Amino acid sequence: MVQLNVLLADAQQQASNHEANSMLNSMFNKENLDKFKIGVDQVVQLLAQTLDVQQKPFSGIFPHELAKQFSDIDLNQPLFDIQEALTEVTQLYLKDAVYFNNPRYLAHLNCPIVYQSILAELMATAINTAVETWDQSGGATFIEQSIVDWTLSKLALGKQADGVFTSGGTQSNLMAMLLARDFQCQQHTGHINKQQGLPQDFKRLKIFTSQVSHFSIQKAAAILGLGYDSVVSVPCDEYFRMDVNALNQAIKQCQQQGDIVMAIVATAGTTDFGSIDPLAQIAAIAKQSGAWFHVDAAYGGGLLITPNNKHKLAGIACADSVTIDYHKSFFQPVSCSAFFVKDKQHLSVVTYHAEYLNPLSQQQAGTPDLCNKSIQTTRRFDALKLWFSLRTVGAKNLGLAFEQVMHLARQAYLLLASEAHIEIIHQPQLSTLVFRFIGDGSTCNQDLDELNKFIRKQLSRQGDALIAATKVADKQYLKFTLLNCTTTISDIQHVVRLIKQYGYQYLASDLANQQTPLNTPVKEVSYG
Ligand SMILES: *Cc1c(COP(=O)(O)O)cnc(C)c1O
After folding, report:
1. Do 82 and 39 touch, CB atoms closer than 8 A?
2. CA 453 to CA 389: how far, in whole Å?
3. Which atom of ligand 1 is nearest to the CA of 337?
């Protein structure tokens, strides 16, 4: 038996070791608050310097150029100093980061954010709330639930509706397909997938979605054991909206084959075109065919809080489930996203009662444990940033900012349409524009593909503006995604000038024949 006095002596020894132990000096608590404040000041100063020197959305660096700088870092050798570590991070990260707040960032759906949301992030991270159970979150649970209920009131999904925060649209779409799959299996075969796994004839389950819907539907089908082959790609009309006649036909064919119409996924704001499928018509078809009706409003969800464009989502109230990414059109930091369902009973598909965490008795006693409706366990308190933004900026102003970028997209459309050497293939529905440079029309399609790839590469390498690219009918296009309310039409004009400049440069050089990419060296960016 170890003597008590030996244990006590050992404890004393440990305590004195601790004085030298920097963990005690590093924990976030009252004792270390002064050091924390200094650190916060240092970070804010660095951000200020960064924003000050950062004229471009991107430095233009290539991966292999940046990768070199990582070879000298030994993570087993700490710097022990915040200022030194910040200098290192500046070199490895901030210097060549992509700046979404830059008015000439026009590429992906990642948005610039309101600064108030960052303050909320700091708080939530400092407290380190884990929002999966009441006993780890307290008021945070009610803040998340309030944001869910607030969004539900805008969606008008009805009294039985509920929702939960997720890591993003991909996870929300996975949840939608999971709930739909298990509901349909039970409907058609009485089979409980959660308990028994998939039924024998699961291959009969088919998911219908438009040919321009998000790839996460295919991914969800694969993860859920149904495979890409279970996804039926429905053609679109000329506005890139799901063609309801084609949908009806595809469903008929499915039923004739003895297959099951598991789900119809409509998109409210496709990633490339911002197109909104005819939700009310699709809802009726879903009802008639017994399909689960999911609306992927990852991008278009922002319309819910616009003063003048809510009607574009008409029909969403009929959805069985909805995906909304606040980290796209609500100007919130990554991650901030949620999944909603018309009948909350379906969420039991993801409920598992663990004795140590969320025992059944706790649910029966009415304890609000959010993990009962999530596929995650430990989960960030992502609702606080939106809550704080609603309380300090206001939903109306967030909605107005989305309307402003929609307006800018229409102006940009007119600008591009007036350019003889640019072909634009759709009217903007939300805030994206898909187009390509076509020169004087004498270049063949294959060369145009190379030409447009070249333009995007050049823009990225020079870093003055970032734009995206996509393929339509196998042809290479360029894409603007406008989410920055500080971007003006003269920024767009500037970027269009650059696009034309690189386009003509390509045509004038013998690149068009050689097909070798031009490697313009990046100018050294001075960094304060
Ligand atoms: C972005 C997007 C998704 C995926 O959302 P993440 O938050 O990136 O996971 C799904 N659907 C649509 C229409 C999107 O635009």
Report:
1. yes
2. 38
3. 7
- Give the number of other Cβ atoms within 10 Å of residue 62's Cβ: 12
Residues 337 and 447 both lie in one domain: no
Q: Say how far apart CA 247 and CA 251 lie, in whole Å.
A: 6
29 burial class (0-12, 13-18, 19+ CB within 10 angstroms)? exposed
Domain count, the chain: 2
Distance between CA atoms of residues 143 and 161, nearest Å: 17
Distances in Å between the Cα of 166 and the Cα atoms of 70, 139, 381, 389 are 32, 18, 10, 18
Closest C-alpha among 289, 274, 212, 282 to residue 245: 282
Is ligand 1 within 6 A of the CB of residue 272?
no
Residue-number span of the structural domain to which 283 is assigned: 161-353
Q: For the chain, list residues with pLDDT below 50.
A: 516-528
Which CATH number does the domain housing residue 434 bear?
3.90.1150.170
Residues 336, 427, single domain; the answer is: no
Q: Give CA–CA dist 144/279, Å, rounded.
A: 27
Residue closest via CA to ligand 1's atom 3 equals 169
Phi, psi of 267 (to 5 degrees): -110, 130
Dihedrals φ, ψ of 145, to 5°?
-60, -35
Provide the pLDDT for residue 522: 42
Both 318 and 410 in one domain: the answer is: no
* Of the candidates 439, 429, 433, 437, the residue with the CA atom closest to the CA atom of residue 489: 433
Residues 268, 195 within the same domain: yes
Is the shortest distance between the CB of 170 and ligand 1 below 6 Å?
yes
Q: Are 426 and 324 found together in one domain? A: no
The residue from 353, 375, 405 where one domain ends is: 353
Task: Answer for the pair 254, 261: CB distance below 8 angstroms, yes or no.
Answer: yes
From the CA of 171, give the closest atom in ligand 1. Answer: 9
Model pTM score: 0.94
Could you give the dihedral angle defined by the CA atoms of residues 488, 494, 500 and 504, in that order, rounded to the nearest 10 degrees?
A: -170
Asked if residues 321 and 341 have their Cβ atoms less than 8 Å apart, the reply is yes
Residues 313 and 451 both lie in one domain: no
Residue 49 lies in a domain: no
CATH number at residue 245: 3.40.640.10
- Residue 270, SS3? coil
Q: Is residue 298 part of a domain?
A: yes
Within this chain, do residues 407 and 334 fall inside the same structural domain, yes or no? no
> Could you tell me if the CB of 398 is within 6 A of ligand 1?
no
Contact 303, 312 (CB under 8 A): yes
Per-residue confidence (pLDDT) for residue 511, from 0 to 100: 60
Residue matched to tokens 């909603």: 340
* Residues 324, 404 share a domain: no
Please give the distance, rounded to the nearest whole angstrom, from the Cα atom of residue 366 to the centre of ligand 1.
Answer: 33
Task: Collect all residues with Cβ–Cβ distance below 8 Å to 152 and sequence separation of at least 6.
Answer: 161, 162, 163, 340
Task: Decide: 411 and 489 in contact? Cβ < 8 Å.
Answer: yes
